[in-house]
Amino acid sequence: MTSANTPLGFCGLLTTLFVALKLTHVIQWPWLWVVSPLWIPPVLLLVVLIVVLTAAWFMKPKHRNLRDDFSAARKGRLRQ
Questions:
Q1: Domain presence at residue 38
Q2: Which of 5, 19, 11, 18 shows the shortest CA–CA distance to 38?
Q3: Looking at the whole model, is its pTM more than 0.70?
Q4: Which residue segment(s) compose the domain that 33 sits in?
Q5: Domain total in the chain
Q6: What is the pLDDT of residues 29-74, one digit of tens each?
Q7: Which of 26, 28, 45, 76 would disulfide-bridge 21, Cβ 3.0–4.6 Å?
Q8: What integer pLDDT is reported at residue 57 of this predicted model?
Q9: What CA–CA distance (Å, rounded) separates 56 from 42?
Q10: At residue 31, what are phi and psi to the nearest 5 degrees?
């Protein structure tokens, strides 16, 4: 199969179906919802990405302050 003959995929077929139904007046949905199979997957991907990055941000290890360790080592009370 060449790149010119690639299938539409589920979202493309669903969008085509919704547009056909809208143009034949079978459904009376707003155009926003007719084309929703095109924009919902990227929005869901963005939400998942934000959740993963937020979780990674809060789960990152806390770095010790090297200046405090240096001061403590000079005073002879370095934490191990």
A1: yes
A2: 11
A3: no
A4: 3-75
A5: 1
A6: 999 999 999 999 999 999 999 999 999 888 876 665 556 656 666 6
A7: 26
A8: 86
A9: 21
A10: -60, -30
